[in-house]
Amino acid sequence: MAQAQEFEKVLSSSDTSVAAFDEHKSAVKRIQHFLHSTPAAVPLIVLVLAIIIFGITIGGRFFSSYTLTLILQQIAIVGILGAAQTLVILTAGIDLSIGVIMVISAVIMGNCAVSYGMPAVLAVAIGLAAGAACGLLNGVLVAYMKLPPFIVTLGTWNIVMATNFIYSANETIRDTDVDTQAPLLHLFALSFKVGTAVLTLGVIATVVLVLILWYVLNHTAWGRHVYAVGDDQEAAKLSGIQTKKVLMTVYTLAGLIAAFAAWVSIGRNGSISPSAAVTDYNLQAITATVIGGISLFGGRGSILGTLFGAMIVGVVSMGLNMLGADPQWKVLLTGVLIIGAVAIDQWIRKVSA
Amino acid sequence: MTQEPILTARGLVKRYGRVTALDNADFDLYPGEILAVIGDNGAGKSSLIKAISGAAVPDEGEIRLEGQPVAFKSPMEAREAGIETVYQNLALSPALSIADNMFLGREIRKPGFLGEWLRMLDRPAMEKRARDKLTELGLMTIQNISQAVETLSGGQRQGVAVARAAAFGSKMVIMDEPTAALGVKESRRVLELILDVKKRGLPIVLISHNMPHVFEVADRVHIHRLGRRLCVIDPKQYTMSDAVAFMTGAKLPPEAALAA
């Protein structure tokens, strides 16, 4: 032991139980700790509750595998966009442009395949590359120019949207044209029945994508770095993480995933419209992410939560539809869920020590 | 000193606009010693440390590590050369686990296909090494190696940061104000930790404003004043008030110390 100073001599008779923990934690505290270590638990619990409540009020009709798989089909695109948004929000950023990146990628895929007569595989590849390029632009502006993500993506949202309208001349590519010339673009509409359950390839792609991202975020160095950058960028930099590179790859990957969502959306919508409801998709993806427990302050949450968050919105809107409620109730409930999710996030953060 | 210094710096100059933070500063660190760096606010301590740890690039001057000239452009390069730094803000990610934090930026991957192609982290190996390191430094009051750093106390966090530096530092460890934010008891633990690290043969540069701590653990005291090294004194031959007098310019240092 180091030579203690005069005033420290009394320490030897002090209480030596350094890290004794209070074993009789209250139930609430224990729940708080559990939620802290398992961030996807809250949305999962809410999801199960929502299914039970609607199941009881609507009855067997709701519990049918047909209805439940229909919900999955409806949330596939929002789920994929939400996964992209999750990556960005984990770095304490936000990407307002993923909705328009999806639309322009879809238009490029359609134009390449139908108007220019390229092979469908090439058209898809070009569409994906375009999405990644838009993401890369966001990434460069955020990481190297050090502009706030909100401003950057608000700007690129407008830029990409305008480019989209100028490039496409606001012309819709018809369903039948896509079907005859490039059936590959409709790949994700492929459905198969298991009993009464109807699964599309798009639904499976969504789930697989989220599982892959979950693996990457939790079991690779890059994934840990994404969390570290969102948690405390300065600390991450000092502990040797190349924060700029991490930010660049995150935004680029988000753009790429948005382009992938475009491919899935062509399958679901059939036709390709440059004026698809971008704002809706954008906000729904952010909503799913927030309800899924991803902290807007970065560094916290599990991507599985985003999938649950998207499912919650899907279950609530389907349930209210079947009850014949005014659609505004769905909007109202979504708002309540968002505020509730953020409130719970704040509460869980206070767990320390 | 008959030994060769492990790290020397000569004539370091660093300017920020019209402010000269380092004005021909020199620095020597010998193997196995604890060298304290003290100085008034604005004397250029941080700039000196930044130059050595790679966080800032000096405008002029030369740094030699074991006789070889080095020019670090980032903290990463200094780390690769074996110089670890414990920053005042600790540079830990609160939401990540202790093990994840200790290996941040130099994770271990699983061998074979899983690591090579799926890039999977070897959590068991990282947790084992982290646990070994913390136990070695007597820090195993932390029960769960996978708990988030934000659930630890200030002293425990400092312990994790020191353990990280000790685990990877092969040449030297720099500690910036390691006891500044801690209570009496926790400071004591950290000082013991510093001496433990020294016992294992790693030289340590200790930046501190806490004179009692400096005089207790340091082998030599480097006094920085007005951007340069004023003198190096032996803490056994001078008192704390002498040191403060030199550092603030109230008293001129003796000729012998100036030559050191």
TrEMBL record, chain A:
The chain crosses the membrane at residues 40-63, 75-108, 120-143, 150-167, 187-217, 246-266, 304-323, 329-348. One of its GO terms (cellular component) is plasma membrane. It is found in: Cell membrane. The keyword Transmembrane helix applies. GO terms for molecular function: transmembrane transporter activity. Keywords: Cell membrane, Membrane, Transmembrane, Transmembrane helix. It is a multi-pass membrane protein. Its main location: membrane. This is ABC transporter permease.
